[in-house]
Write a structure and sequence with these properties.
single chain, alpha/beta, Nucleotidyltransferase, domain 5, 3 domains, five-stranded mixed beta sheet, two-stranded antiparallel sheet, globular
Length: 340
């Protein structure tokens, strides 16, 4: 039998489709396996290239298959889609993964370690709780506005609502339901605070996280997101490549030699991009109150551009700084105040 050169895998929770191909891309076998069968099949198979989409459980299987000696390649799903022929099914998806992986210029995703995924769970849990708290605050504001109690947005105004509720004459059911909302908001707030302390403690144990926090606009949460979700910075040729991976560069609509740039592409890692923009906005807000340091890049931009546009441009600069700090193992330095 011809030797298998690459195995394309279409992952699912219970059923896994595999597609084996030779060096000439010719299909050698197609199998539908359960999770235990897939583990046994790959353990008995000689080491080869194993390609999978970078989706749920892909990093777990990537670690397991790497221990067996296989060369694991995770491909973003958007790069696999063009290789699907006609109808979409598990067998066609596995074949498309195998064909995409044989492209010399195909980009792959590094397999995350168990520690990285643990930090990812911590980060995602905090984001989920913050979102739930925001949802509860907005719901409470909406309900009490129907009874004449109106306050500004934000969790900081919940105490004002609670005080207004004590003095207002409202039906007993409204009072009871509002107290339930307030109790839930306070409970989630305490859990978020505990997770913030956990993130801050974790950030102190990593040299890279401590180094990233020397830059303005980057705190423990942003530093953890960068070290958790971003690949090794040496995988990028320059800081601009890292900024492009984050989606912080203009989207190109160029043709016929004519360059046309649009808004930021937003095609990259959204968590890091969001946190960098939020950090940049805090710099623009506080240091831009007096127009910024005279002669700095920030002061020149604030003089002629809208603040949100300046914040996104500053986030792009921050991404390049992150790349330089991690590649060169240096802390942030801006002695002349060139940026801020």
């Amino acid at each position: 039998m011809e030797e298998v050169s690459i195995i394309g895998v279409d992952l699912a929770k219970q059923v896994i489709q595999v597609h084996g191909a030779g060096a000439d891309c010719r299909a050698l076998f197609r199998k539908k396996l359960s999770r235990p069968q897939f583990a046994k099949f790959m353990a008995s198979h000689s080491p080869c290239i194993v390609a999978m989409e970078a989706c749920g459980t892909a990093h777990y299987w990537g670690r397991e298959l790497s221990r067996l000696g296989h060369d694991v390649r995770l491909i973003p799903p958007t790069y696999v889609k063009p290789f699907v022929k006609r109808h979409k099914n598990d067998a066609a998806d596995a074949e498309a993964v195998a064909e995409a992986a044989q492209r010399p210029s195909m980009r792959t995703v590094p397999v995350k370690s168990a520690e990285q995924q643990a930090r990812s769970m911590l980060f995602r849990t905090r984001s989920l709780l913050v979102g739930q708290r925001t949802q509860l605050v907005n719901a409470l504001r909406g309900h009490l506005a129907e009874h004449g109690m109106v306050v500004g947005r934000g969790v900081g105004n919940v105490a004002r609502l609670a005080a207004m509720l004590e003095e207002a004459e409202v039906p007993a059911l409204v009072q009871e339901m509002s107290e339930l909302y307030v109790a839930q908001i306070e409970r989630i707030g305490a859990e978020v605070a505990a997770l913030d302390r956990r993130i801050a403690a974790t950030a102190k144990t990593s040299q890279d996280m401590r180094r990233l926090q020397t830059a303005p606009g980057i705190g423990p949460v942003c530093a953890m997101a960068i070290t958790t979700f971003a690949p090794d910075m040496r995988a990028f040729r320059s800081g601009r490549d890292f900024a492009a991976w984050l989606g912080l560069v203009p989207r190109q609509l160029s043709s016929g030699g004519r360059q046309k740039l649009g808004r930021t592409s937003k095609m990259g890692q959204r968590d890091i991009r969001r946190l960098l923009i939020a950090g940049a906005m805090s710099i623009v807000h506080w240091r831009g109150r007096d127009g910024g340091r005279p002669g700095s890049w920030l002061s020149r931009m604030l003089a002629k551009k809208p603040r949100m546009l300046v914040a996104v441009a500053l986030a792009n600069k921050m991404a390049r700084m992150v790349w330089a700090m991690l590649v060169r193992n240096e802390d942030y330095r801006d002695p002349a105040g060139a940026v801020c």
